């Protein structure tokens, strides 16, 4: 089948690759671009482990066709911090035990990253509702919610200190 | 879980999109947010040779609120509906319904046009559009035409839209009085076990007009005209609500599936309708 020439900006870098239009974006990222942070779980738009940031929005990359993504700006978990550094969300997930097996975590954190830009000072209920597209089979969510709230508090006080 | 091969098109305007659609006929399909279509393509339930992506068609975007006249472009996403303050102020029931669709990621890509054009009886917005007596603006090779949401749905996935037509926008008058969309689902992100849209107008303590529509209780959304009529002239007392629920039960035809047996669905539908009437009445 004819491949198309995809142009993307992934984690701040312009990349291009060949892919069939029908390929799923998660496969393009993982298999053609070696961006393996976003995982594949259900592959049916339910679990959210494939969540990435596309053009400023959280999306499930198992339900975006390669062709639809042509021209898109994408951020994945890899884009949040340098390899030897942690983003405040990552730090808070670690501190609050927001993960056990870690399979859901890249999707959780990239969703939380966008969610806290949409709503920088959320209530617990708003966190639960805003993160409702991401499933976790280990933690029972309690510590994920704590981690997101703690990251929000940390980011807000850093913002205040800077002012 | 990968769709069968297709040729991809990304036209920049409606004329080009219609031309491609006309050229390939049955073998072509438009894709909006893809959050109903791609799952079907992955399961290979739909064979499509030519996929026409509408994301580049600027004229399908945009929300217009002028007084009570509302026009929402087909490519407006469910998240954009939720983010639009003027729209939320004019039609709070639309945000109430949109917020009950799926989850944040799905709403970021899923569009109003895809939701109403899809023809899946599980979609939430068609019943609301019937309740509000919305008009769908459609364009095909013969030019644009209007179809009432109440006349649009023939059976599951079969609608009044011809294969070579594109939905441009949804248009309606914001309801006076009070409205409510109430949905029962098994979990966040699930389609409705049952759901209902109610809009009514109160005048001098009586119900002056009422419109009721139901989601996922037949192979199409159901506008229950008699159920609305049963409320008119009443003060929405328990007896009036009971009459409306009875009329609604005549209009729906649920089938057993993994969301429950028929009796259960009828029970849920009745409870939801009573709740929605009470809520709409309190808002009227
Ligand atoms: C996990 C999950 C849960 C969901 N839960 C719900 C829910 O609770 N309630 C609900 O209502 N929906 C739900 N949905 C469906 C979601 O709202 C879809 O986004 C919506 O049904 C279709 O919109 P779309 O833009 O994604 O359309 P697409 O998937 O792109 O298209 C759907 C159909 O409509 C046609 N179409 C699209 N746009 C046009 C147009 N402008 N003109 C003509 N034809 C057009 C397409 O050809 C296709 O046949 C869910 C989806 C998922 C994946
Ligand atoms: S893998 Fe995409 S939602 Fe589960
Ligand atoms: S930590 Fe195991 S699925 Fe979330």
Account of the 3D structure:
The complex is a heterodimer of chains A (163) and B (284). With 163 residues, chain A is of the alpha+beta class. Chain A is 38% helix and 15% strand. Chain A has helices spanning 25-32, 66-69, 88-95, 105-118, 124-130, 142-162, and strands spanning 4-10, 13-19, 51-54, 57-60, 73-75. In chain A, helix 3 packs across helix 6. The longest helix of chain A is centred in the C-terminal third of the chain and has 21 residues, at 142-162. Chain A is globular and about 50 Å long. The termini of chain A are far apart. Chain B is 35% helix and 26% strand. Chain B has helices spanning 14-24, 37-42, 78-83, 85-90, 92-98, 104-109, 112-117, 125-131, 149-152, 225-229, 238-251, 262-283; strands spanning 7-9, 28-31, 50-53, 63-66, 69-73, 135-140, 143-148, 153-155, 158-159, 166-173, 178-184, 194-203, 206-215, 222-223. In chain B, the strands form 4 sheets. A 5-stranded antiparallel β-sheet of chain B has the order 4-5-10-6-7. In chain B, helix 11 packs across helix 12. The A-B interface holds A 1, 4, 20-24, 27, 43-46, 48, 51, 57-60, 62-65, 67-68, 70, 111, 115, 129-133 and B 1-8, 10, 31, 34-35, 38-39, 41-42, 51, 53, 55, 79, 102-106, 108-109, 188-189.
Structural class of chain A: alpha+beta
Strand content of chain A: 15-25%
Cα radius of gyration of chain A in angstroms? 16 Å
Report the count of strand segments of chain A.
5
Q: Can you give the helix content of chain B as a percent range?
A: 25-40%
Look at the helices and sheets of chain B and give the structural class.
alpha+beta
* Widest beta sheet: strand line-up of chain B: 4-5-10-6-7
Strand content of chain B: 25-35%
Separation, N- and C-terminal Cα atoms of chain A = 55 Å
Count, helices of chain B:
12
Number of helices of chain A: 6
Specify the overall morphology of chain B.
Answer: globular
- For this structure, what is the CATH class of the largest domain in chain B? Alpha Beta
CATH homologous superfamily name of the largest domain in chain A? Beta-grasp domain
Assembly status: heterodimer
> What's the architecture of the largest domain in chain B, going by CATH?
2-Layer Sandwich
Q: How many structural units, i.e. domains of chain A?
A: 2
Main sheet of chain B? 5 strands, antiparallel
Q: Please report the distance between the alpha carbons of the first and last residues of chain B.
A: 48 Å
């Amino acid at each position: 089948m004819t491949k198309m020439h995809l142009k993307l900006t992934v984690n701040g870098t312009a990349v291009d690759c060949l892919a069939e239009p029908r390929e799923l974006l998660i496969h393009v990222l993982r298999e053609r671009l070696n961006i393996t942070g976003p995982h594949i779980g259900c592959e049916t738009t339910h679990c959210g482990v494939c969540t990435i940031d596309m053009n400023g929005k959280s999306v499930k990359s198992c339900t975006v066709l390669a062709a639809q993504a042509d021209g898109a700006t994408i951020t994945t978990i890899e884009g949040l911090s340098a390899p030897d550094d942690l983003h405040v969300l990552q730090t808070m997930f670690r501190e609050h035990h927001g993960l056990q097996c870690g399979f859901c975590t890249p999707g959780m954190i990239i969703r939380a990253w966008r969610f806290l830009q949409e709503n920088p000072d959320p209530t617990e209920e708003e966190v639960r509702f805003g993160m409702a597209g991401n499933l976790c089979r280990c933690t029972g969510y309690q510590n994920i919610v704590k981690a997101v709230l703690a990251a929000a508090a940390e980011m807000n006080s850093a913002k205040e200190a800077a002012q | 879980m990968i769709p069968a091969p297709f040729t991809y098109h990304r036209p920049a305007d409606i004329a080009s999109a219609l031309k491609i659609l006309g050229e390939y006929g049955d073998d072509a399909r438009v894709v909006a947010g893809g959050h109903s279509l791609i799952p079907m393509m992955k399961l290979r339930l739909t064979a499509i040779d030519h996929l026409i992506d509408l994301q580049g068609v600027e004229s399908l975007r945009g929300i217009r609120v002028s007084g009570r006249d509302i026009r929402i472009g087909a490519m407006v996403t469910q998240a954009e509906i939720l983010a639009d303050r003027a729209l939320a102020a004019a039609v709070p029931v639309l945000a109430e319904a949109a917020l009950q669709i799926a989850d944040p990621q799905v709403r970021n890509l899923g569009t109003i046009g895809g939701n109403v054009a899809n023809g899946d009886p599980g979609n939430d917005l068609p019943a609301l559009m019937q309740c509000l007596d919305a008009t769908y603006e459609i364009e095909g090779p013969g030019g644009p035409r209007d179809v009432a949401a109440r006349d649009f749905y023939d059976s599951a996935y079969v609608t009044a839209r011809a294969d070579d037509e594109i939905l441009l926008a949804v248009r309606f008058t914001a309801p006076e009085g009070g409205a409510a969309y109430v949905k029962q689902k098994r979990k966040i992100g699930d389609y409705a076990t049952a759901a209902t849209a109610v809009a009514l107008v109160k005048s001098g303590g009586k119900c002056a007009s009422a419109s009721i529509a139901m989601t996922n209780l037949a192979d199409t959304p159901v506008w229950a005209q008699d159920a609305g009529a049963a409320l008119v002239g009443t003060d929405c007392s328990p007896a009036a609500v009971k009459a409306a629920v009875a009329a609604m039960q005549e209009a729906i035809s649920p089938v057993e599936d993994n969301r429950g047996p028929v009796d259960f669905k009828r029970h849920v539908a009745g409870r939801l309708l009573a709740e929605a009437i009470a809520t709409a009445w309190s808002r009227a």
